[in-house]
Design goal:
It is a single chain. Helix content is 48%, strand content 16%. By secondary structure, it is an alpha/beta fold. Strands 1, 2, 3, 4, 5, 6, 7, 8 and 9 form a 9-stranded mixed β-sheet that branches. The protein is globular and about 65 Å long. The model is unreliable at 220-228 and 335-345 (pLDDT under 50).
Length: 345
């Protein structure tokens, strides 16, 4: 890449009680083949030595840095929004506190942006690793059921009606995209919010290289099930929380797509037919979110109708959604749960 065309690169890294891992992550960012110009750390009220460790490392580097501190916890969405807003670069890499970047990450992504000025967001695959950085069998994309056909550009708008495939820690954005979508949604995760906006404009790039290590340590805000034991634990959690969470997930998906439709209407209007698909997606999640108030027979008819219409294939990522809805429809008893709730009071 020619020096006179060099883009200013910023890194927005959000932290919260991450003293165990922050050193490795910052060192991996500072040791890139293609150096970054700025690092902004947004700390969300850590009670450990996260800020102290980060400041000690950054002080010894030649990279410009800022550390934003919260006295109270504002949550990862708001933390990422204010941290990105504090950066000055044309290209902004998003970073979690507990991963490790490979030395060529910034170089590969920056060159992609340089060669393709129209792209607003790029994301890559990653090696999924355990707490000691031991590589697991599946990559991040494999764990997220994302398959990229190298010969075909994905239809991002339709793909995102199924679910989210872009992990924030894998992503870098142009400042233009951030300005388009701020403020972030209160209910949608920040990476999905950014990716949907870029995808609706056909300006999202998937890079198949594994450019970083996605560490799984059991305390991740959002993680993947990479081992048999981990998968079993996740499935047990789903079953235990089925009655509480299954309908909430459908409701949240409905609300997210409604908000996206309202906020991103200027992108959607350029997509003939997509708005109808989005309405069908909202109707799908809305109907299933209302199963609590339905008698058993109507619940089953509702599920079978959507199976027949192919909506589970179009609007969900895995068979787990269908299995969860069937279990809910079969086992949920309003009367029994009402009695329990009275006892609880």
């Amino acid at each position: 890449m020619e020096k006179n065309k060099r883009m200013r690169i910023s890194v927005a890294i959000c932290t919260y009680n991450g003293e165990k891992y922050i050193r490795e992550q910052l060192e991996s960012i500072l040791n890139q083949e293609y150096s970054v110009d700025e690092i902004v750390v947004g700390d969300d009220g850590s009670s450990d030595r996260t800020i102290e460790v980060a400041e000690k490392i950054l002080k010894t580097s030649d990279v410009s840095y800022r550390i934003l501190r919260s006295t109270t916890n504002i949550g990862y969405r708001k933390n990422f929004e204010r941290t990105i807003a504090a950066t000055k670069g044309e290209i902004i890499f998003l970073s979690d506190q507990d991963d490790v970047w490979k030395r060529n990450k910034v170089k590969v992504v920056a060159e992609c942006f340089q060669k393709n000025p129209r792209y607003l967001m790029a994301f890559s695959d990653a090696d999924v690793v355990d707490i000691k950085l031991n590589k697991q069998k599946r990559s991040l994309w494999e764990a997220c059921f994302f398959k990229r056909d190298k010969k075909k550009i994905p239809e991002w708008d339709l793909l995102f009606l199924k679910g989210w495939y872009v992990t924030g820690a894998a992503a870098a954005i142009r400042r233009q995209l951030f300005e388009q979508v701020r403020p972030f949604s209160e209910i949608c995760v920040h990476d999905a919010w950014l990716a949907m906006a870029a995808g609706l404009q056909d300006r999202l790039l998937a890079i198949p290289d594994k450019l970083w290590m996605y560490r799984q340590h059991g305390a991740n805000q959002i993680g993947v099930a990479y081992s048999f034991r981990n998968k079993l634990r996740k499935k047990k959690e789903i079953l235990v929380n089925l009655f509480q969470n299954q309908m909430i997930e459908h409701r949240n998906k409905k609300l997210i797509y409604i908000e996206m439709k309202e906020r991103f209407d200027f992108f959607i209007c350029d997509k003939p037919g997509f708005e109808k698909q989005m309405d069908k997606c909202i109707e799908f999640h809305s109907e299933l979110a209302g199963m609590k108030s339905m008698p058993w027979s109507r619940r089953m008819r509702t599920i079978l109708k959507h199976v027949k219409n192919g909506n589970y294939t179009r609007f969900t990522t895995t068979k787990g959604w269908l299995a969860g809805d069937f279990l809910f429809a079969l086992l949920y008893k309003r009367e029994k749960l009402k009695v329990k709730s009275r006892i609880g009071r």
